[in-house]
Design a protein that fits this description.
Number of helices: 4
CATH architecture of the largest domain: Orthogonal Bundle
Largest sheet: 3 strands, antiparallel
Helix content: 40-55%
Radius of gyration: 23 Å
Mean pLDDT: 75
Structural class: alpha+beta
Low-confidence stretches: none
Number of strands: 3
Strand content: 5-15%
CATH topology of the largest domain: Arc Repressor Mutant, subunit A
Length: 115
């Protein structure tokens, strides 16, 4: 960890510090405080590594379709819906659905699909 006290980290030193933090567990802040290092530096190298190794999938746009809701016999629109398809799973959210319900459903889809 002595090399981590240098003004700049080489990629090798950064990899060593990130591995040490992962092995120790706990928060980045606690780890860096314990070793007298700047937390932002570990955050920077962790993100850089994740971007290079593809540990986190890149963000992308998802197709979203806003469809008119069902109509009553008089022709009045009863409500709109939003339909999202992720990895072959289609989720339709009707007007009036709570934010909590939508979040729970999308989290479940994400866990199953590994998005």
């Amino acid at each position: 960890m002595a090399a981590a006290r240098q003004a700049r980290w080489t990629p090798e030193v950064a990899a060593q510090v990130v591995r040490a933090w992962e092995e120790e567990g706990g928060t980045q802040s606690a780890f860096m405080r314990k070793h007298g290092l700047a937390r932002e530096r570990l955050r920077f190298w962790t993100r850089r590594r994740e971007g290079k190794e593809g540990a986190r999938p890149a963000m992308s746009f998802m197709p979203v379709e806003v469809a008119p809701g069902e109509r009553s016999e008089s022709g009045r629109v009863l409500g709109e819906a939003v339909q999202v398809e992720v990895g072959g799973v289609r989720v339709r959210v009707e007007a009036g659905a709570s934010q909590e319900l939508v979040e729970r459903v999308l989290r479940a889809v994400k866990e199953v699909q590994g998005c």
